[in-house]
Amino acid sequence: MPLTAYDLSGRTAFVTGAASGIGRASAVLLAEAGASVHCADRDTQGLHETATLIKAAGGTAHTHYLDVADRAQVEQAAASATAATGRLDIMAAIAGIMHNSPVLETRDEDLDRVLSINFKGVLYACQAAARAMITAAANLANTNAANPDTAHPDTAHPRGSIITMASGAVDTGGPGLLCYGAAKAAVVQLTKTLATEVGPHGIRVNAVAPGWIRTPMTDRHDSDAQAHTEGLMVRMSPLGRVGEPEDIAHAVLHLASDASAFTTGQILRPNGGVAMPW
């Protein structure tokens, strides 16, 4: 397949969690590939910085301040992004938070907060994107049927791609990670189920399950604890290193592009080889 399969020129992408870490790296890379990127987050300063990076490199960026746990905000932002170009081709639902608590000490409010952002926030983004993509595909098909001599080639191979962010936590247990792991496992099930439902419309749905990545989310310990944890991850990895946000951004780009045109309902695991499930 030629490298043009990774060209996203003319496409519209929406990225949640775009203010930092994996979300920022993904937004920047999608823009470099040619997409018009709508960056969403509740961190206004981080959003501005991400948009500035994209524009400085010659890309197109728009910002949406929102809380992914608020369905109405997500739907409004997705509708705004779609209205700008009449299409929404890529949804990368990356926003998430980390929480640590032993099972026996986990409170209702802890579980509710993590599920509201890490699962419901992804669900809302997926729903908004799928609806927009289905409508756009139907409109395009109707237009082409009415004007067969100028039919758009996208009709034969629709390009809607929804990418969710799971975690290596879905493949193994970890002390203190009940809320986070349970939410990410739910994301995996959402991904597989939605893939079966929207596939007939030409929409693909896949998840990325990163291993240990250096991001503001993982940098939540003091320096000694952080060094100890990273050292452990390095020793566990056959590649002998931890990941960077750009490692995951390239996985997102692959799933967003035509290079993965025959891939749906899958879990891509860029984790340095720490976990190798069947």
TrEMBL record:
Keyword Cell cycle among record annotations: no
A UniProt-annotated Pfam family: adh_short
Catalytic activity, EC: 1.1.1.-
PROSITE patterns found in the cross-reference section: ADH_SHORT (PS00061)
Coiled coil regions in record: none
Sample GO molecular function, one term: oxidoreductase activity
SUPFAM superfamilies: NAD(P)-binding Rossmann-fold domains (SSF51735)
Keyword Oxidoreductase: yes
InterPro entries associated with the record: NAD(P)-bd_dom_sf, Sc_DH/Rdtase_CS, SDR_fam
Keywords: Oxidoreductase
Family per record: Belongs to the short-chain dehydrogenases/reductases (SDR) family.
Name this polypeptide is given: SDR family NAD(P)-dependent oxidoreductase
Species the sequence originates in: Streptomyces longisporoflavus
Organism ancestry: Bacteria, Bacillati, Actinomycetota, Actinomycetes, Kitasatosporales
